[in-house]
Amino acid sequence: MTGRRRSPAWIAVSVLSALVMAFLLAPIVVVLIEAFNDSELMSFPPRGFSLRWFQAFFANAEFMGSLWLSLQLALIAAAISTALGAMAGLALARGGARRASLQTVLLSPLYVPRVLVGLALLLAFAWLNISGSLLGLILGHVLITMPYATRTVVVGMRAVEPSVEEASRMLGATRVQTFRLVTLPIIRSALMSGFIFALIISFSDIYLALFISGPQSITMPLRLFTFMEWDQSPLVAAASAVQIVLILSVILVAGRLFGLSSPGSVE
Predict the structure, then answer these.
(1) Does residue 204 contact residue 71 with C-beta atoms inside 8 Å?
(2) 68: domain CATH number?
(3) What are phi and psi of 238, to 5 degrees?
(4) How far separated are the first and last CA of the chain, in Å rounded?
(5) Is position 48 within any domain?
(6) Which of 131, 144, 146, 251 has the fewest CB atoms within 10 Å distance of its CB?
(7) Contact 91, 157 (CB under 8 A)
(8) What is the mean pLDDT of the chain?
């Protein structure tokens, strides 16, 4: 029995897809390999295998403090932006004539360069006297992550037929009950996808941190950035590897618990 012959176009697309995937994954693989380098300076390929840079990372109080701050900040900002994004997404999905204007305003942080956003927040927070505080970091990260949560909810709401919500209302359910029992289960995956997007963007942001972080609120990306200015040891790769593992773990756990197969899927 012979299989169907692959067309040249199919082979070309497959090869191109493989090259793109290799291009995207190569930096991650290099960082993970470099984290186990036994050399005093970063070099590739590694000259030996060692876990000492991971030991040095976990023994460094400054790195651990920044890692914990980034985790707290990412979780809080992602939760707030997802909640606000859900309300904004529902308003956009069910909006009327002003929908386009509202969408432009809500998604405007995506259109403005992150450096300009950081500068604007620096001036605003200085006036509000919250520069360098955790509150300022949370507000800034909510601002840049909320558009992603909003977009995922809008996409998820496409799977919700208005007639289903109307039927629920006709059967005596209130708006809150309709949302909790009908709408929420359908957009659950979209909400979790938005949360994951916001978490990753917040956890990896450095542009805002350059402007609004303070001496006691240095996030992990900013700590790595300043550390690399005077140290080129594989400790940086080990710290990056820990962050990669943390992010992948969150994504895998969320996918297992909430089934993030598609934004509008219903389990």
Answers:
(1) no
(2) 1.10.3720.10
(3) -65, -45
(4) 39
(5) no
(6) 251
(7) no
(8) 81
